[in-house]
User: What shape does this take?
Amino acid sequence: MSNLGEEVSGKAFKTGLIVEGGAMRGAWAAGVLGVLYERGRRQYDFVYAASSGACSAAYFVADMWQPGLHIWRELACHVIRKANLLRHTPIIDLAYLVDYVMRQHVPLSIEALQKAPTRFFIVLTDCLTGEPFYFHVCDDRVFAALRATASLALATRGYDYVDGKPYADGGLADPIPIRRAIEDGATDITVVLTHNPDIPFKPVPSWMGKLAYPEFPIVAEVWTARQNIKYNDALDLMKKPPAGVRIRVFRPMRPMPVGSFTAQKKLISAALTLGHDEAVLQMENMDSGLALASLPG
Assistant: This one.
């Protein structure tokens, strides 16, 4: 089944896929993407993703899903370096993840991304303006964008450079870019969440923002005072989308076996399996007409 450029009632519509980040919680989302891939739902007109969701989405868009799963199963556990806390250095090793794993060990194909019929956007936060930036993947700058979007507050230095400009995790400025997808013309949108949407996001204490982003106070404000508003606004929009827009939501149904900084391989594998199994159940409900979206109204 192809999701690209289909027609409904004689009217062309565009499909979109949104993958939320969440560091190691992204293992659950990877399990969901595995189900979409297995069921032939591999091509979308637009894909938007941030943080670990962007890393998974890159392999999904490039039609390299088995290598992408291998990273989660065997290598993701090495990304978290908790011993670095004692050295006062970042606990997420982005050099290992992006520069070694994604560039060399399990190389992400730039050619495959360029040939893909999907417009793939990595969501970033502009450190100078605090606004979201949707980086269109079209060349090897994808690796710089992945480093930037995976630059989590306090777990890394918090930002990285793309084309000489500093960017932070896109999940700060636009954690679920549903409005952007609709503005781009997507009318059939699949959203993969890694947080329980029944629990609204709360503001982050301002002192944490100042600690995480001393060089970029605007980003500190975005994280501590705006992110929760954007997140909850996106949840509201998913519950009541505009006329002519259909939204399917995959969400965690039970507590995950992992947190954002889990490093145990068995637990990461368990999160992958849980995401896969819960996605199968939710997809069956959607296909049987029991639910178009798994958000409460």
User: Anything to note?
Assistant: The two ends are 29 Å apart (CA to CA). The longest helix spans residues 217-239.
